[in-house]
Amino acid sequence: MATVSAEEYHSVFSEFQCLKEKFHALEQENQRLLGDLQQISLEKQQTQQQHGELALRVQQLEATIVAMQQQGSGTQGIHKEPKIGLPTKFDGTRSQFRGFLNQVRLVIQMHPSRYPTDASRVGLVGTLLSGSALSWFAPLLEKESPLLNNFEEFLGEFKACFGDTDSIRTAINKIRRLRQGDRPASAYAADFRLLAADIPWDDQALMEQFRYGLRNDVKDLLLTFPEEPKSLTEAISRAVRCDNRLFERRSERQLQMPRARSEPTYASVVARPFPRESYNAPPANTPTPMEIDTTRRRGPLSEEEKQRRRTNRLCLYCGGPGHIAINCPHRPRRQVNQIVASSNCTKSEPISVGISDSPNSTNIPDLANKFDVLSQLEEELND
C-alpha cells in the first residue's frame, strides 16, 4: 500500500470541507425556493379566486345595464347631452364677436364628448365662419397651421383680428355716456351692468356713475333714503323701486285728468254743429236762406216741411244748415228773448247755446230735459 504524504492528505481534506460547505448552502437555497414556490402557489390561488369573483360581478352589471336600457330607464338621460342649437355664422363684424365667442364656448361646454380635443373645437369655430372671418381662417387650414391643434392660442389670434383689443377703454367711454332717458330704470341698469363687467372699477365708483346717469326725478326720490347704498346691487334695487313708484304716480294722474274732462256739458252738446254731409238740398221751389225777408212775418210751416227740415237737420226758421232756430242769424233777437222769457226756464237753469267750459254748465243728467225745452222753443219760434 502506497504511503500518502501529509501534504496530500491536507489538500484532499481541505477540498472535501469546501465541497461540503457548498452542498449545505445549496441545500438551504433549495429549501428557500421551495418555500417561495409554496407562497407563490397560494397567491396564485387567491388571485384566481378574486378574478373569478370580479368576472361574475362584471357579468351581473352588464346584465343590469342591458335590462335598464330595455326598460327605458332614466339612467340613459344621465349621459345624454342636451340639444343646443349652433350660433349664427360670424362674418367678421366686430360688434358681434363677443356674443359669438360666448355661444361657441357654451356649445363646447354642453357637448364635451362631441368636442373633446382642441382640433375638434377649432374645427367647430371654422364651420361657423363666413365673409372676412372665413377668409382669415382659410389660410390656416390650407397651411395646416399649429393653431389648429391649440384652441386657446387660436382664440387669441382670432380675438386679435376681430375682437376689441381695447375693450376696457371702450366700455368706460360707453358707460360715461349712458343715460336712463325715458326708459325704465331696470332697462338702464341692464345696460349699465353689461358695460360694468368689462371695467375694473370698485363698487363705489360704479355706484356714482350709475346715479349720475339716472333721470332727475329718480335722483330726487333717492335723496329720501337716510343711508347710502352699500353695494351696486343695492343702489340698482333702490333706483328701480323709485322709478316704479314714479311711474305708478304718473299713471294715476293720467287716469284722473281725462276723466274730469270727458264729461260733456249741455252747452257743448247743443252748440255742436250738424254734419254738413247729411244735408240734402231743398227742392227748387223752396226759398234759400238769403231770400227770406226778415222784416216780414211768414206763415207757419206745414207738418211735411217741418219733418223734412228735421230729417235733413235744417233750421226750422230759415231752412239753412249748421244751426237751429234759436241760433238762427236771420231771426230777430227780440223775438227769441220774448219767447225765452215766457217759457218755464229759470235763472238757475240757463240754456246756453254757445260752447262753454264753465263748471256751471248743465251736465249730461239734465240733457234730456233741456232738449225738451229747446224743442218747445223751436216750435214757438216757428209758429
Tell me about this structure.
The protein has about 375 residues and is mainly α. It folds into 3 domains: about 95-160; about 165-260, no CATH class; about 270-380, no CATH class. About 60% of the residues lie in helices and about 0% in strands. It has helices spanning about 5-70, 95-110, 120-125, 130-140, 150-160, 165-175, 185-195, 205-210, 215-220, 230-260, 265-270, 305-310, 335-340, 365-380. About 15% of the residues are buried. The model is unreliable at about 75, about 260-295 and about 345-370 (pLDDT under 50).
Radius of gyration: 54 Å
Give the assembly state of these chains: single chain
- Summarize the biggest pleated sheet: none
Number of alpha- plus pi-helical segments: 14
Query: Taking all residues together, what is the mean pLDDT?
Result: 76
Beta-strand residue percentage? under 5%
General form: elongated
Q: Separation of termini?
A: 198 Å
Please identify the structural class as seen in this structure: mainly alpha
